[in-house]
Design brief:
Layout lengths: L1 H12 L5 H13 L17 E2 L5 E5 L7 H4 L7 H12 L20 E5 L12 H17 L5 E5 L1 H13 L16 E4 L3 E6 L4 H4 L6 H18 L2
Parallel strand pairs: 2-3, 2-4, 4-6
Antiparallel strand pairs: 1-3, 5-6
Helix pairs in contact: 1-5, 4-8, 5-6
Length: 231
Amino acid sequence: MISDFVKLEQEIVKCRRCPRLVTWREKVARERVHRFRNQEYWGRPVPAFGSPDAALIVIGLAPAAHGGNRTGRIFTGDRSGDWLYEALHGFGFANQPTSVCMDDGLAVRDCLITAVLRCAPPNNKPLPAEVNNCMEYLRSELQLAARKRVVVALGRIAFEAFLKAWQSAGGCRAHPKPEFRHGGECELHGGIMLISSYHPSQQNTQTGKLTRPMFHQIFRRVRSILEERLP
């Protein structure tokens, strides 16, 4: 399983399926922004972070143009990552609350972090065809993650993409179809719990749509579920 997962992530890093995304990610990496002008950008698709034998899977939207697209690690070097790793650390899923660069010592525990898209989309808005192009990778990761017990989908796009990938990977469709809402829970076939959350983007956190207590409650609930279900 581990070797298949490594091969998959190596394939992801080399992907050039979406011309618009390739052009954008490489343009951002080449031109950079002033505050990161002296840093070398990753400028390629960003692989998942963590282990495929994890009980918790966290799914985001895509790497940030000057976050993961710069650092090469998902949710690293941007404000969304600050919120995510702080929460993961608080509930025992990460060894530290900060995520600055690929070699900052961060490690996750029993957690796999991935995304719907592996390339940063312009204005954080992927096209439907781009989501479909990347769906194969998410589906394969779900199939390889044999110990998964809880999936946290950050944002509506991640929520919808997970349900589609889950079904195409052989999972049974939930009836009735779950609706996206912050803190929503849906028990899927095989004892998998899907939890939906607002994405910790600045659009949500700076407006107060998502507060730290709201976000931390998601991972408090995850920890509670895993303590009930894992030996």
